[in-house]
Each structure stands twice: as structure tokens, then as C-alpha cells.
Design goal:
It is built from 19 helices and 15 strands. Strands 3-4-14-9-10-13 form a six-stranded mixed β-sheet, sandwiched between helices. A five-stranded parallel β-sheet has the order 8-5-6-7-15, sandwiched between helices. The radius of gyration is 20 Å and the shape is globular. The chain has 469 residues and is α/β, with parallel strands linked by helices.
């Protein structure tokens, strides 16, 4: 299996190369040259496998010769052994049709752990084979940062520089990053910046020769293919429990950067019977507008109670547009160039029609978000966070046939957003015992001007060059 750039001109890489590279040198994102596909019988044979074994089975075609099947399974056992629930991503039934897939049983209480616990081990595995050092530069709207930091804190040959927009993440989200005091962890609070500003700085650094000549810049955001690959697994795990491959399942996914829902698209391409993927946004609705009207135009970011979705540039959407546009890298490079220059573009007819075959979308405003939180508590006895609430709202109005189970991805523990949950339900969710002392821990964070020059200077002053010696 090798990996090609969505923009067509970067060299193809194997799985190890794509994992360490993150963003392609032409500004594109790496995708497999072709989608591996399982037969109905092969999917049926996965029923009942423990999560780590299922993960190794689903991911092996993507890994190719970079890891043996035995080593991949060992890494999966190590990654998912840290989760507080033995099922890793358990299902909770809400009513006759609706289910929650709980993705918050990892160490930082968010779905990012499912991928990043494995990604940290992959980095360590691949770096151990050479004298290379890796400088991870990431942007977070809340959850990626803490999950990435937990995954790589203290690991050899890796430095992580994680940017978040100052004042625009929850207190719990911030403290889960800034209380990790490992010497290879650097938290940067960008002043007067949005998440999109942080993400733009990451992309610019990948294309800055002065930085990439000296440092091996790597990615933990969902622009990194290995992270998306790990998220494909829980679609298989859930669908198998609900009757796949003989039965179709629909999924409602809260998303800003399109990574989590694109993993569902990959699962469908691999043969999983996915009836529909519901893209749920908050009022920062560029994805909803793109899928509903073909209008992919950037607006200003509106801060909400679901900060991980306060995004107006969805990096992973490029992967879908590449696939739906016949995998024409040159055409997509031109299309994305238009967007980057004007902050607006229209989807082609082929892209719109291809997306409509599998995707639908929904926008939830603040009142709809709160109503969904309240409905889950009053009718099902479940506390859910604001991001999950956007997806549950979308799931309940999507009009999916009643014989098709609809799974809402519960992407964060409600205790990460206690104020929003309490406003809606009167119940203040408590932190699990394993992070109960979070507000007593020492914080360490650097406030940095929200400019590329300031961030690049900070990284250059603190990172290790790409090779030892």
C-alpha cells in the first residue's frame, strides 16, 4: 500500500513515510492509492473480536509492509489497554432506533484518544529505526491537543508544539494540555487567534523550507492519515454489534474538520454497509452549506459551547473532494488554490452528486444543542456534551428509515463542558476519578502572538534538529 497526495505532485510514500510526514510537500493530504475492500464473509468473520484484534484486522491493509501483523496487534493492545472501558468504544441504547457510541473512555476523555494513543506508539516505533527526531506541530480547538500530548509526552525523539486559540477552549480542555509538564511538551496559547488561524500556521510551517530543512515537521491533526485510519475501526466495531454486514447502519457525526466523518466514508469504501453519514455542525456551518448547496465559503468563526467544532476551514474535506472528483490531483490543486485565494469555491456537480449518495447534513444552533442535551437526560437518563448534542439533534430529524439503527458518535465526556450541560439539565457532570485532581495540578503554557513568525521563532528556539549528531 502506498500513499498519494490529493494535489497530485508530491512523491508517493509508504505507510511509515506518510505517518511521519503528515502533510504532503505539495500542500495536499495523503490518501491510500486505492481503498482496500473486505468481502461480506470477511466482515462477518470479524464479529466478536476484542477491540484491539479488530483494529489490527481492519488496519492491516493500510499498513502494508511497514509493520508485521503481529507487531501491529501488539501496538493496538498497548494503545487500547489504557482505556477505562473494556469495550473501548461501547454502545448505549437511547430508544428503539437511536444509539450512542461512547468514544470518551480514553485518558483525555475525548474521541481523539482512540487514534492518538496508537499514533504516539507508531511515531516511537518508526523513529526507533533511525537517528531521526520528529517535531510535531499541531493546532487544537480543544481535544486534539490533550490527546496528542498524552500520547507523546516523555517519548524519545519527539517534541510536540501544540497551539490553541487563547480563551477559546474550555477550562478542562486547556488544563488537560497545560498540566502535562514533560520536557518534550510545549503548549502555545495564541493571542487574538481562532482555531483556523492556528491551523493555517501549521500548514504554512509544512511549506516553509527554512523550517523543514532543519526540522522534521510532523502532524497529529487529522491531516495525518494514520490518525484517520485508526478512527475507521470504531465504525466497524459498532456496525458489527448492530447486525452488519447483513444490516445497514447510519451514523451521525459532530464534526468541524471532517476527519471523524471521513473515517466513516472510508469504512463504507471498505465494504461496511453504511446507510447514511449525517454531518452535524454547529452554527459554524461551512460543511453543511457545502453539502446542502455546494457552497464551500469561509465565514468568520462564531464561538459556541461546542468549541471543537468552531471551525470554518475543514481540512479533511479535501480528501473527499479528491475521491469524488475522480482522484484528479491537478484539478483539485486548482480548486483548492481558488479557495485559498478567495476563501470561497463551488463544488462541482460530480462532487455534489457523489457526496449526496452517502452524506446528509444538519446545522444545530445554540437552542437546538441545549434541547438535545435536555432530551437525552430527561428521556434516556444520559448526560451528553454539546458536540454530541449537535449530532443527536441531527440524528433525530434526519428521517432515516425506522428499521435502520442510527448511531450518534459521543465524542467527549460531558464533564469537559460542565457549564453547558448544567445549563441544559440542571445536572453538573463530575470528572471521572482518574482525572479528578485536574484543577489542582500545576499549569505550564506560553502565550505567543498569533502570527506565523512568532510561532516559527518559538519552535526554532525549542525543537531538536531532524537528525542526531
Amino acid at each position: 500500500m502506498d500513499y498519494v497526495s490529493t494535489r497530485g505532485s508530491a512523491p508517493a510514500l509508504d505507510f511509515e513515510g506518510a505517518t511521519l510526514a503528515g502533510l504532503a510537500s505539495d500542500g495536499g493530504l495523503y490518501v491510500p492509492r486505492e481503498w482496500p475492500r473486505f468481502s461480506t464473509a470477511e466482515i462477518a468473520a470479524m464479529r466478536g473480536l476484542p477491540y484491539a484484534q479488530l483494529a489490527a484486522r481492519v488496519m492491516q491493509p493500510f499498513v502494508g509492509n511497514s509493520l508485521t501483523p503481529q507487531r501491529l496487534q501488539q501496538l493496538c493492545e498497548a494503545a487500547y489497554g489504557r482505556f477505562s472501558h473494556k469495550a473501548v468504544t461501547p454502545l448505549v441504547q437511547l430508544d428503539a432506533q437511536h444509539w450512542l457510541m461512547e468514544l470518551f473512555h480514553g485518558p483525555t476523555l475525548a474521541f481523539k484518544d482512540v487514534a492518538l494513543q496508537l499514533l504516539g506508539l507508531l511515531f516511537e516505533e518508526f523513529l526507533s529505526r533511525s537517528d531521526r527526531n520528529l517535531t510535531i506541530v499541531g493546532a487544537t480547538s480543544g481535544d486534539t491537543g490533550s490527546a496528542a500530548i498524552d500520547a507523546v509526552a516523555g517519548r524519545a525523539k519527539v517534541d510536540v508544539f501544540m497551539m490553541h486559540p487563547k480563551g477559546r477552549v474550555s477550562d478542562v480542555q486547556r488544563r488537560q494540555m497545560t498540566t502535562v509538564l514533560a520536557p518534550n511538551v510545549h503548549n502555545l496559547a495564541l493571542e487574538d487567534a481562532s482555531f483556523d488561524d492556528c491551523q493555517a500556521i501549521v500548514k504554512r510551517m509544512f511549506n516553509d523550507r527554512a523550517m523543514t530543512d532543519r526540522y522534521a515537521i510532523g502532524a497529529v491533526n487529522s491531516i495525518n492519515w494514520a490518525r484517520l485510519m485508526a478512527q475507521v475501526v470504531y465504525y466497524f466495531a459498532t456496525a458489527l454489534q448492530l447486525g452488519a454486514p447483513e444490516r445497514e447502519v447510519a451514523f451521525s457525526v459532530p464534526t468541524g474538520n471532517f476527519g471523524d466523518v471521513f473515517a466513516g466514508y472510508v469504512a463504507q469504501q471498505m465494504g461496511l454497509p453504511v446507510a447514511k453519514l449525517i454531518v452535524a455542525t454547529n452554527v459554524n456551518d461551512i460543511l453543511h452549506r457545502a453539502l446542502a448547496d455546494g457552497d464551500y465559503s469561509q465565514g468568520s468563526v462564531t464561538p459556541t459551547a461546542a468549541p471543537s467544532m468552531d471551525i470554518q476551514v475543514s481540512s479533511n474535506f479535501e480528501r473527499l473532494l479528491f475521491d469524488l472528483g475522480g482522484r484528479d490531483g491537478a484539478a483539485l490543486a486548482a480548486q483548492m488554490g481558488t479557495f485559498e485565494a478567495s476563501k470561497a469555491m463551488q463544488l462541482t456537480n460530480a462532487q455534489r452528486q457523489g457526496a449526496a449518495a452517502l452524506f446528509t447534513s444538519c446545522r444545530a444552533d445554540a437552542d437546538q444543542m441545549s434541547h438535545a442535551i435536555r432530551w437525552a437526560w430527561e428521556n434516556c437518563g444520559e448526560l451528553i456534551d454539546p458536540h454530541t448534542a449537535c449530532a443527536l439533534h441531527a440524528a433525530r430529524i434526519a428521517g432515516i428509515a425506522p428499521d435502520v439503527p442510527v448511531v450518534t458518535l459521543a465524542t467527549a465526556h460531558p464533564a469537559k463542558f460542565p457549564e453547558a450541560v448544567e445549563r441544559a439539565t440542571g445536572q453538573r457532570p463530575g470528572l471521572p476519578a482518574r482525572v479528578g485532581d485536574l484543577f489542582e495540578r500545576e499549569e505550564r503554557c506560553a502565550a505567543v502572538p498569533g502570527t506565523y513568525e512568532a510561532v516559527a521563532q518559538y519552535v526554532a528556539e525549542h525543537a531538536s534538529p531532524k537528525a542526531d549528531g
